Amino acid sequence: MRLNQFLARAGAGSRREADRWIREGRVRVNGAPPEGMGPSVDPSRDRVTLDGALLRWEERFRYWAYHKPAGLLVSRVGQGGRATIFERLGAKARGLKSVGRLDLESEGLLLLTDDGVLAEALLHPRSGLRRVYRIRVHPIPGPPALRRMREGVVVEGVEVRPTRVLLEGAEEGEGSVLIEVREGKKREVRLLARAAGLHVARLTRIQFGPVRLGALRPGETRTLTGAEVRALRRDAGIGARG
């Protein structure tokens, strides 16, 4: 197995991050710096460390669905006194990383895993994974506002055009809108709403690829089913073993 693949599978990060760590001299194989970008390693025999910490090979990865509450950062390190999801989850989430992010004010489905190869593949633009959001907005959007959202916006130099925009209902001056996108750009859904002259009161991601939020309440986690993991791998374009 390539050294960068081992680092990713051991839950340390993505293969791109692993390449950088190797270049920076932070990785040791059996106590010595690897030559070049590193030889192949045998997880059952070789001792691989990152910044002096031993990385252990785990044949069984963890795959979680998590309902991120609003008001938490998706980060390992808090900022400005704000709590992070990993502080809330505690020791049980050690070694896990998030597959993408949700901003501070947003809530809903977030995938957590220690399978770095799958996490990296899911976030690659070629995966085109479906992301579905439900937003509460005001004022209630009429046909012109819905049409404007469907036209899309440019985010980080990339045009983001929803594959679906649907007004589900309206109550007390607010509308409930379902938005489906295939890109993973920062604050893309909020920017779509803003372009249509709408204010987002609440934003919840309810689906990521084949995985649905379902009945998970804020702060709750569940283990993905085998069928969900296989579907994620298929959608990410990697084999059953990654």
Protein model, in words:
It is a single chain. This protein folds into three domains: 3-54, RNA-binding S4 domain (Structural Genomics Hypothetical 15.5 Kd Protein In mrcA-pckA Intergenic Region, Chain A); 63-125 and 212-236, Alpha-Beta Plaits (2-Layer Sandwich); 130-208, Pseudouridine synthase. The mean pLDDT is 90. It is built from seven helices and 14 strands. The chain has 242 residues and is of the alpha+beta class. Strand 10 and strand 11 (174-181) form a beta hairpin. The longest helix is centred in the C-terminal third of the chain and has 11 residues, at 226-236. Helix 4 (116-123) crosses helix 7. The protein is elongated, with a radius of gyration of 20 Å.
Can you give the mean pLDDT?
Answer: 90
Listing every helix as H and every strand as E from the N terminus to the C terminus, the arrangement reads HHEEEEHEEHEHEEEEHEEEH
How can the largest sheet be summarized? 9 strands, mixed
Gap between N and C termini = 12 Å
Could you tell me the radius of gyration in angstroms?
20 Å
Tell me the CATH architecture of the largest domain: 2-Layer Sandwich
Give the structural class.
alpha+beta
Helix content: 10-25%
CATH class of the largest domain: Alpha Beta
CATH fold-level label of the largest domain: Alpha-Beta Plaits
Please provide the count of β strands. 14
Strand fraction: 25-35%
In short:
Helices cover 24% and strands 28% of the residues. It has 242 residues and is of the alpha+beta class.
